[in-house]
Amino acid sequence: MLTIRHFTKSYKGGKKAVDDLNLVVEKGDIYGFIGHNGAGKTTTIRSVVGVLDFEEGDIEIDGISIKKDPVACKRVTAYIPDNPDLYDHLTGIQYLNFIGDLYSVSKTDRERLIKQYGDAFQITASLGNLISSYSHGMKQKLAIISALIHQPKLLVLDEPFVGLDPQAAHTLKAIMADLCRNGSAIFFSTHVLDVAEKLCNKIAIIKAGRLITYGKTEDVKGDHSLEDVFLELIDND
Ligand SMILES: Nc1ncnc2c1ncn2[C@@H]1O[C@H](COP(=O)(O)OP(=O)(O)OP(=O)(O)O)[C@@H](O)[C@H]1O
Question: What PROSITE patterns does UniProt report for this protein, alphabetically (predicted)?
Fold first, then answer.
């Protein structure tokens, strides 16, 4: 579903933020992307979703190169950034309908999914209110619902659990598992290693722009906790 080949990205005047990264996310995978601050996670994620240009390598989504046909790639991808920037002057429901229109979601699917996810995140009663009146967590829930209503083949999330209350985090984990059981793929960054360990079937660890290990969670962590493996790799590699 997502293939990253020899991906390399430098910012103007800086060293390589990501250097020769290769990764494959298959249908049904929940792939956790972990690394210390500044390791290159957001740079990779923003390039995968077509927000950031890159000079070397290629990224394919569902077999299509993001460089050759970015619109086709975006049509099947949903992206939830770490700090979603929504339209404050719209109500929650207006925003969801705007996204539904962009992705040509039918009226029936739209109503069903907004009800399903709105109820799951306990935000249905607030959807008629202006986004400017929402708390940070409510904005994050709205961004998540807007990503889910177009039923993406690939869901990409940057630090999705930061700012969510425990109940919302629990709901999101259940939805992520459900999506992947139904054949979508998820690629997400996180610093919450115990969540990554429980939720992800695959893990990649990045350090200073280079992947230092990746693969099935049980192979990456062996008999140890993911936290122990991560700390050891980050210290010793
Ligand atoms: N707009 C930018 N201009 C210049 N350098 C940047 C820019 N954005 C990121 N970088 C640099 O690229 C490297 C990777 O940053 P990135 O944001 O991808 O890390 P990250 O793994 O997402 O970190 P965090 O966990 O703190 O969010 C860092 O050295 C950072 O300073």
Answer: ABC_TRANSPORTER_1, ABC_TRANSPORTER_2
